[in-house]
Fold these 3 entries.
Entry 1:
Amino acid sequence: MELNLLFFLSVVPAIILYGIAKSGLGGSISLISIPLMTIVMPLNHALAILLPILILSDFISAYRFRREFDRETLKLIVPFAAIGVIVGSLTFTVFSENYLKLFLGIMGFLFSGHYFLFSKAINSPKKANFYKGAICSSIAGFTSFCAHSGGTPTSIYLLPLRLKKEIYVGTRIMFFTSINMIKLPLYIYLSMVNFGTLYQSIALFPLSLIGIFIGYQLLKIIEEHLFYNIIYFLIFVSSIKLIFDFI
């Protein structure tokens, strides 16, 4: 990697945003991180550098929320996400990144737009739904493998459950810790992660710690209703960005 002004304007904020996402605050805003990194490097290289950073960040966040997560929800969504990851690994070389981003953008736009239009009617918690959980988590596993962008499909299932703020964050963290560990051997098998990319990951990892710290501090002071509104808003903004990128 060439360290220049463009690098610091693209890669540095991208990894900090992923760190903030790993704290549980604004997970969907990290959708813009991959496009930022691809300004200065190929997609495969960006994905390979990010995965070890995400895993190390996952371990830190998982320890913080080790007692605050919904075990029953994880039992449903992790196995189906694993299926999505495997499908992603088998089709990675043939999918179109641009169409994947468009799909995520449209999905997030409709989901968050529906919330803001009908929020008074949908603020009550929804019950767990096997089919919705299976579909959303499978898509999350697939998009996570292909572009580290499984946040929106995951949110579509988890947010309507209206879990307590800390439980929501902990469940997301445990979910992505699991699927990122499933992704790692497949990335190695596809020769995406190697000693060169691993060295770069370690060098950039402190940036993620900065993001995690920022996210934790914000999480402490945000009231629960505001927290959910912020998450929906970030999904809405990042989804519009993905749609306009395609146009």
Note: Residues 5-246 form one domain.
Entry 2:
Amino acid sequence: MSPFDLTDRTALVTGASQGLGLGIAEQLLAAGADVLVLSRSEIPAGLVASAAEAGRLVRWYPVDLLDAGAVDRVCADVLAEHRVDILVNNAGTQARYPAAEFPLEMWDRVLDLNLRAVFQLCQLLGRPMLARGHGKVINLASMLSFQGGLTVPAYAASKGAVAQLTKALCNEWAAQGVNVNAVAPGYMDTEMNAALIADPERNAQISARIPAGRWGKASDIGAAVVFLASAAADYVHGAVLPVDGGWLAR
């Protein structure tokens, strides 16, 4: 059996209706996992068709991750029906304003989704993993876990915190059989980066710094998540894995 085979594993992915989350869900299905999706938006029909063709389960649980009570309830529903072996905290948001003008209500929204919801899901779905002595948690960090960025102070703060949370949970959970790691996507050709892609100057600056010569794709992140979710990464704990085409190395 391949060490990357996820057959008989169930993965829960947040925000998998589009972008990186959808690419992650597709790669997990291809590796043999069943996939549960927590998101506000319904999952695309193509993902359902792919799961059916592969003989895998995919199920959508509608939830607003900004609502802590709703997260509690949906996780209770999930755990009543499924054993969650893999948690992928992908859902996130950003807002662009100069720091001196950044609205506090937007700051709270970004931190609530990008950090509070991540920790809450780690708690709720990590507890059964700890009880079983096995599980995989993969958080989505960012290049802005390492850099400060421009006009995205809340996003940078939240993703820096996600990297540190990943390490903190590793220190408590690794000896109990639960791997907690993070993937730090580089510049991805997704909806979230539409403003950067449309800005000729920033697009050129970013592209010139990527040794691989291209922006990343959702499947690039999905493949890294499959690795961290698999037996091949059983001795990988507390890592923040850049998947950036070499951007950090330049």
Note: The chain has a mean pLDDT of 96.
Entry 3:
Amino acid sequence: MHSFVVSSFEPPHIRVFAGNAQRGGSKEETTKLCIAALEECADYAGRRGIFLGIENHGGIVAEPDDLLDIIRAVKSPWVGINLDSGNFHTDDPYRDFERCAPYAVNVQMKADIQRRGQKQEPADLPRLVKILREAKYQGYVALEYESEEDPWKAVPGLLKRMKDLFNT
């Protein structure tokens, strides 16, 4: 039996959004500015024991290659990914989640995913948990609920299901 263990002390993290290319600026220029800002902030945050988690939240980090390029360019152990399971609207969101999971400093799990050009569909929660286990992720997992169903009805069941999946 495997158990998903979270340590009694997790270093804090701050969620960071990369944004979009600015008017008149290119994606490349915006990416360079993002990397420079993360390097400066990582130095400051690292001295205080705080992780920076850049979220896969559209804009210049909508695609996993771009997000991973930024993380690798920063070269700081204090910068990782605030990995949101519902934010890759790519051809294969599970593959992209898996590629980014080793860099996760925090995970936000959603009940739905949306493949490129498709409608939302229920997320394969067991598959997402398996990906996190295989990546040896040891941080927090938060449920971020944005589905259509009434949250007062859906969230308790989702939380129980997630807890059961992580504790089996």
Note: The helical segments are 27-47, 64-74, 93-100, 125-134, 151-166.
